[in-house]
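Figure 6 in text form: structure in, sequence out.
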């Protein structure tokens, strides 16, 4: 079986590795000249990542001890969390290397332009290239060209993230999150790569660069690199397959609406897709366990979107309870179904926010 994968990010590399290992002919096409570039990611991950990829020092740039949540008033709450900051260029290359070891072929500087029958069409420099496929997989990001060409990319909305790597003095073991008017409808962050630089950014639906400039005033360092990009807003991931064409990762819209994170959920969707192809299962139905977790994130985002500054102040106060911190430290946020009921039992005051989740 000839499999064409468009996009050499975490989800594309994951499905390529799984299918190549099973003996299929796999070709991965990447628009950019280098796997993992340009970087459009904060790169902070939980221990759930290592359920989908081996941990390797080659791509880990920092280990974190926790998060400092900063309310609109400046009140700060510290929650211990053992998490990691990864270099996406090195991580994506690591995953691509694993797929190549299984026999997958990689082609950079190939831009997907459409489908003609059972051939994928690519533009590479001045050449038009046709590649026949039995299966075509779009793992080519939020604005998926495969999704557009197949009619699968429907009713998609996005946050826009603006981020920069900034020099300065940072506590290398703690990342920061800011809520309220500084990032309406989402949040802002500062994730240290080490003691002398951090990835500082914000995501919103509108005027993101204005809010980034406001955030930057909190930090006086030099901008080393700028990044920006869309973050798909999860809306059920309903349109993920049309015949022998499939979407995975950001192309399928499987991001967490609470944080915008899509590395782990994207790799999860890619594993589900590979298993569905190999076992001839219904991919859309097989996604339901992932959809269940993302549905909870969706309801939590609905709740947060309706918060006043006073609600954020209350949230920070109520999260300071020791049992709440212990639960958040113990459970990766990719799986809220495993601990959300425990949180409500540990801090019943959270129930006051339930009215917002389903409004």
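Output sequence:
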């Amino acid at each position: 079986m000839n499999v064409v994968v468009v996009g050499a990010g975490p989800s594309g590399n994951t499905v390529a590795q799984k299918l190549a290992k099973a003996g299929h002919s796999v070709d991965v096409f990447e628009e950019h000249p280098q796997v993992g570039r340009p970087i459009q990611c904060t790169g902070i991950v939980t221990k759930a990542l290592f359920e989908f990829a081996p941990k390797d020092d080659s791509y880990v740039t920092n280990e974190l001890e926790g998060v400092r949540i900063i309310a609109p008033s400046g009140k700060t709450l510290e929650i211990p969390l053992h998490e990691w900051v990864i270099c996406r260029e090195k991580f994506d290359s690591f995953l691509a290397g694993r797929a190549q070891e299984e026999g997958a072929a990689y082609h950079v500087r190939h831009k997907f332009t459409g489908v003609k029958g059972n051939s994928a069409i690519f533009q590479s420099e001045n050449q038009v290239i046709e590649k026949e496929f039995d299966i075509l997989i779009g793992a080519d990001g939020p604005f998926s060209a495969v999704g557009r060409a197949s009619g699968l990319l429907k009713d998609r909305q996005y946050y826009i993230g603006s981020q920069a790597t900034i020099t300065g003095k940072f506590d290398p073991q703690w990342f920061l999150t800011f809520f309220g008017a500084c990032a309406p409808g989402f949040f802002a962050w500062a994730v240290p790569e080490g003691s002398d630089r951090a990835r500082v950014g914000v995501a919103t639906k509108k005027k993101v660069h204005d809010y980034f400039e406001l955030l930057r005033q909190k930090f006086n360092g030099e901008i080393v690199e700028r990044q920006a990009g869309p973050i798909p807003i999860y809306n059920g991931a309903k349109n993920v397959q049309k015949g022998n064409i499939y979407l995975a990762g950001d192309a399928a819209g499987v991001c967490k609406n609470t944080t915008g994170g899509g590395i782990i959920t994207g790799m999860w969707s890619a594993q589900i897709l590979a298993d569905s192809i190999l076992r001839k299962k219904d991919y859309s139905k097989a996604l339901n366990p992932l959809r269940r977790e993302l549905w909870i994130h969706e309801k939590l985002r609905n709740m947060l979107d309706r918060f006043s500054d006073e609600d954020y102040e209350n949230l920070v106060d109520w999260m300071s309870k020791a049992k709440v911190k212990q639960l958040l430290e113990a459970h990766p946020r990719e799986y809220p179904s495993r601990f959300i009921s425990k949180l409500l039992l540990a801090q019943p005051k959270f129930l006051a926010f339930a009215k917002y989740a389903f409004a």
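Caption detail: The chain has eleven helices and 17 strands.
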